[in-house]
Amino acid sequence: PEAELAEIWDMRALLEGDLARRATALARPEDHAEVEHALRRSELEAGRPGWREGDLFFHETLYAAAGRPRQTASVRELRETCAVHVADYDALIAETPRWLADHRAIFAAFRAGDAETTARLVSTHVLEAGAHLLARRRSSSAAPANRVLDRREEGH
What we know:
Layout: H1 2-26, H2 29-45, H3 51-64, H4 69-85, H5 96-112, H6 115-155
Helix pairs in contact: 1-4, 1-6, 2-3, 2-5, 5-6
């Protein structure tokens, strides 16, 4: 169901970008402090078991300032669907430097009050993660077929 997964990533990008835009527009200084704390936590947990919880904490702390719990819950559900259907979801750990840089840029735009940039950065961040995982999924599903072909070629 690659098309379905691609659709889910697109939905996430739309919903998360919207949450980021709203959160940035409504953020108070205490929200900035909370998101900065979440950023630091995600940086500490990056590359370690449990990194996904730190990543989720960063995103959900950012989105909390939007005051849209149902939309945030929908994003969480879509995120879990992605994790269940992409067995290699933890492969994102290999992209740790990139997603940490993304988080820092997202936070900088959030703190600066630039709602459009925050939304764009979040949407791009989500879509790039989805593209990376879908590409890995394609290559891993093609690998067994290639091994079968390689064995046939060896026998001839």
